[in-house]
Write a structure and sequence with these properties.
The protein is mainly α. It has one domain. It is about 80% helix and about 0% strand. The protein has 9 helices and no strands. Helix 2 runs parallel beside helix 8 and helix 2 runs antiparallel to helix 9. The chain is globular, with a radius of gyration of 18 Å. About 40% of the residues are buried.
Amino acid sequence: MIPIDVLTVFFAAAIALGLAPGPDNIFVLTQSALYGRLAGLVVTLGLCTGLVVHSVAVALGVAAIFQTSEIAFTALKIIGAGYLLYLAFQAFRAGASDLPGNDGPALSLWSLYRRGIVMNVTNPKVAIFFLAFLPQFADPARGSVPVQILLFGGLFIVATILVFGGVALGGGLLGAFLRRSPGAQIWLNRVAGIVFVGLAVRLAIAER
């Protein structure tokens, strides 16, 4: 059994990492501001589903591929950067009518959930981070290391939901204020597009 003090230290570290500015919480903020707090919460669930994939990959040793193979690392980050540029293109061409509360179409919850999954799973830096972070807290003397890694991964996801949930609520309030003005709505889309481009560039130039 994992000692309470180890779990406490791990959870505190996970909260701190979630609060640090990064691509995932910025992504949640922009989606919440654009589509509302529910959208941000759904995106958060999508991101956390991606964290489940990374946790399982670390537990099974699959994540090590992205640390040892330049080809695998580069291929995944190109896919992720391409997806972010696609989202940027959509944001740049969107108008005020494309936001909730107007007559135009809004994204479905499934689309938002899928965005969160793809955003997280296609970032090889997350896989390598989990590969470096989670095993630090596992101890073979306590039993199965893969099981411990999955437990730590689950605890990290709980911390992520708490932090990103707060980000989603805050972004939703900001978006509700800005959506009162058609000009502000268009500006919000343009800012989101710039953020997506920035995240795409950041991912494209990332190194192992």
